[in-house]
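The instructor's notes for this session suggest beginning with a concrete chain rather than abstract definitions. Hand out the sequence below and ask the class to guess, before any prediction is shown, which regions might be ordered.
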Amino acid sequence: MDKISLGCKTLDELLGGGVETGIITNFYGTAGSGKTNISIQCAVSCLKTGKKAIYIDAEGGFSIERFIQMHGKKDLERLILSEPKTFWDQERMIGDLQKELENDKDIGLIIVDSIVALYRLELHKEKIQEVNRLLSKQFALLSKLARENKIPVIVTNQVYVDFDTDELELVGRDIPKYFSKCLVFLEKTGNNRRKATLKKHRSRPEALSAEFDIRNEGLFDAGRKFGIF
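After discussion, reveal the predicted structure:
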């Protein structure tokens, strides 16, 4: 597969045709900004090609009912769903991905939603250096797997307000920024409407934005033209 479609014309155009293979694409934003909906939509797009998708649900946000709303019950058997309960579970699951990809050539996508949810819980336990080392290790392995297997890797990222700058910052700060070759900021602009803004891309200009709607059936063009807003 060349790219994974987001099932929404404006979002695909924003990314130059969809989510790239061979790299980590990071969708980040506050709660309710659409991160999990985008993750599920990408999984659906992968399954439609006949490939399998690995979905590591570290935040407990994946819903079978939501998947069925968007795609029906078909293809569920090709969705490989894992639910780590601790950051150490997540470390083990990501570490096992290399063997899974070697044993199953039909895997076409890896999703980790959210890669920092369990990491964040460990930061107050005076293990900052250790958990940062493990987060870097996980990102490095995901980047390697994307590149060597020529598949897309999608992660979602939580954010927080930096008290010094009063701006939103990615949880994990420089770690996700370094390893994610595509960064997309998501924000809620209405009841069902969201806005996606490119913050980093290998071939597209930064600050390009697109609006989209989240409906029961999935992601839809919000009716606004693609461009810089």
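Then share the key points. The mean pLDDT is 93. The first helix runs from residue 9 to 14.
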